[in-house]
Amino acid sequence: MKIEDNKEYIELINSHHDNLKESMKVVNFLKVSESRLEMTEKLEHIFKYSEINIKYFSFLTSSFLDLLCTLKGLFNSESEWEDIYYSKSGFLTIYETINTYHFHQKEIKKIVDNDHPNLLDDYKKLNSFLKEYKSKYNHKTEIGPIRNKTAGHFDKNFTEYYELVKKLNKTDSIKAIESFLNFLKLLMYFINTMADLMKVRTEIDLDKSKREFYKNQNNG
To answer: Source organism's superkingdom (predicted)?
Structure first.
């Protein structure tokens, strides 16, 4: 993912932030609607599915936004310490996003298996992409220590802290962040596809319910 200038960064950040705010409005709407409607089993499933989907997409969007801001900082940095600061921030976001991704996988996999088995191959490709990313950028041996000793926490031994941060390289950090943004884009597209498929299914179910309702009314 290559971004050429500040204007493009700002447009992307504002656009995704607007999407995030709209998504959270939908979550609030779902909660209010759920409390007012008489819930059938099918309707309850739709509401639960929609809330999980939107919250997960919102989490991905917030990570995407954080990394866009980090890249913008690296793009504009004029000192070595700025490079270190934004690199630490980027790797912290990547580490925590991966952890949260894995935390939700059991739930997401269940949704794919039950509601979208046709997307299983795409789901597996996403996991393969992430596995390759973690291997290429040394998730355990490099990103993990950066998070644990310089960003999420500060190591009590400053020498160890400093030895880690002085190894951070602006060009390498940008490559790692851009590559992870590509993964997030694919994952967000995947979650959107799931939402679109559920929307179609919901419309079909509602139409079927309406036809059955009117049929029963006429027979009565």
So the answer is: Bacteria
